[in-house]
Amino acid sequence: MVFRGSESLPLTSGKICYSGSWEDCKTLIEHVHNTYLAKERQAGKKARLYAYGCSLGAQILGLYLIKEKSAACKYLDGAILYGTPWSTFKGEKFFYENAFGFYQKVIGLTLSATVRKELLPQLRKYVSEEDYEFYKRVLETNWSGLKAFDEHIFPRMFGYANKQEYYEAVSLAERVTDIKVPTFALGASDDQICGHMFAPTKAAQSPESRICFGTTDYGAHVCHLYGHLIPKPWYTKPCLEFLQFIEARSTFRKKEE
């Protein structure tokens, strides 16, 4: 899924992409399924659909799986979440204060400049003049990083009463057992952005859980690399092992039937 307004795609509404954009994810998954997989299956061919999300994309995909519960099983056979921000609500302090706030500030100021220069002019025809001036003022005076988005822009744009209500709405950890699609979540204990201590590993061990966690000591935030001169990513290996397991299990069940 390409985030709204990225890759030079024009905005078609008064909304930009954020961690709660799970309905965009739903639209894409259902479109791919209904356009391609449904026809393949009707023709008697083996066809399965998997979804992968990384960082913000993992949070959006995870929220889709939670919101849709068992309904998502109609479209997806498996999912992979990599470098997931599990609890925006509980992890706020860690994210904003870790490394003296360096990461959130770099991410936030970069996003702020992009939205102000490229997306704000497009938003103007879809929002009220009052909202436009509000967004413009926040972006032009933003030196705090992502805080300006979390405290001002996202709550106003998506109808939350305040930052806390927004955080609670997009947090995954507290509702992870609502995920019914077989899911593999890969992360690292030294993730300096998301903080893997907020991952719901205990909930994943419950009988109703459909999620499997893989946690390494090192790997930082989506940086599972090997090699010296030219490091290469290796996170794909456990992810592919999980998908191969799903494939093998599906084939075995089909033979039993």
Overview features:
257 residues; alpha/beta; four-stranded parallel beta sheet; two-stranded antiparallel sheet; 6 strands; globular
Strand content: 5-15%
Strand order of the largest sheet: 1-2-3-4
Which series of helices and strands comes N to C? HEHEHHHHHEHEEEH
Distance between the termini: 35 Å
* Estimated radius of gyration: 20 Å
Percent in helix: 40-55%
Oligomer: single chain
Count of extended strands: 6
In short:
The protein has 9 helices and 6 strands. The protein has 257 residues and is α/β, with parallel strands linked by helices.
Description:
There is one protein chain. With 257 residues, the chain is an alpha/beta fold. It is built from 9 helices and 6 strands, in the order αβαβαααααβαβββα. The protein has a 4-stranded parallel beta sheet with strand order 1-2-3-4. Strands 5-6 form a two-stranded antiparallel sheet. Helix 1 crosses helix 2, helix 4 (102-123) packs antiparallel against helix 5 (129-140) and helix 6 (147-158) packs across helix 7. It is globular, with a radius of gyration of 20 Å. The relative contact order is 0.14.
Helix/strand layout:
Elements: H1 22-42, E1 50-54, H2 56-68, E2 78-82, H3 92-97, H4 102-123, H5 129-140, H6 147-158, H7 163-170, E3 183-188, H8 201-204, E4 211-216, E5 225-226, E6 232-233, H9 236-256
Parallel strand pairs: 1-2, 2-3, 3-4
Antiparallel strand pairs: 5-6
